[in-house]
Amino acid sequence: MRRGDLKRMPVAGGRWPVAGSLGVARPYQSRDLSLDRQGAVSRLCTLAAILLLSGCGRYADFTLPRAPGGDTSLTFTLEAQANPVIAPGDGWDSGDVLNPSVVRVPSGLINLYSGFDGHTWHTGLASSEDGRDWIRKGKVLSPDVRTWEASYIAGNGSAVAFEDRFWYWYVAGPKERPRLGLARSGLMQGSGWTNNSGDFQTWSKEPRPVLEPGPYQSWDEYGVADPYAIRIGNYFYMYFLGQDRARRQRLGVARSGDGVQWEKLRSNPILELGGDGAFDEAGLGEPAVWNSHGFYWMLYTGRDIHEKRRMGLAQSTDGVRWTKLPAVFAGSQAWDAKVICDPTVLVEGGAIRVWFGGGDVASPDENLHGRIGYGVLRPVSLSSPRNATLAK
Questions:
Q1: N or C: which end of the chain has fewer CB within 10 A?
Q2: Is residue 9 one of the residues assigned to a domain?
Q3: Which residues have a Cβ under 8 Å from the Cβ of 113 and sit 6 or more positions away?
Q4: Domain carrying residue 327
Q5: What is the pTM of this model?
């Protein structure tokens, strides 16, 4: 999430439907008290059903399909390319480019990334054959000020290729209280997947947010952001940031059968802040999750009290219970010396490829001279002699 503090806003929701109304007693008309009691019970049951559907119905207990596990001493090193692969452009992305979301299609790679023009965050699209040289295709999403999206952002999202379309969950709404929306591309059937001639420019947005902040005093009461969606079996799973009234930014997970109606994990958050002096003591965000080497893995952004951002690593066998690992990845070049963030991961063959954002200004949200970098995660077994054996 763009890291500006979120201000307190009213809890989302509309007026309750009227469960019943009080009639006016006519003169000399007797009333059957048993019927009154039955009506009262009926109205209470109706109200209870409304409360259940609007509250508890959005939460569930679940895990991802269990991973088999493996070498518990396994970790990764990051070999990052020295130069960024996407730099700011001349127009809608002239300020910063960050938050890549890279998807493999038959023609190569598609990258839906965020660009800042000095006032607003937009989403653009680029294509590549190798993941290093990218061809810009232009802007595809901007916030619509006539809707819930407001004017600050329609970006910072996560893309999945599914049912011959791109599905893109993105952040929008007021900066102080972000929500998550969903946009779908035009059809990409046949040659659209193979020669990049599909409908990249026609996007259909859901009319309302698909993931809202939580209720009063919940861990995500003040906003939800930073989606990272994956598809496993019959479900989408979305990892996301939530912020509470104490301004703590932590990570949670939700699942959906259709990508629109989501159930949040009842036991969220799944990853907590680091301790005093840790690289992630001031906030977590921007998770990226994948499955390899017998585990689920998560790269996530951690920020310290000086707004310097680095990436941490966590491990899980069920996608819900996570263990932070000691590995911390910092920028290694001048252009990403203060910020490394926004990872997206593709597992291809034996390679775990990572695209990420970076900047040389420790800014919480924008104007950090943001660029997009590329690297490869190399598995390392710490149980091997001299802690340097590459895992197979």
A1: C
A2: no
A3: 86, 97, 98, 99, 100, 101, 123, 124, 125, 126, 372
A4: 57-390
A5: 0.85
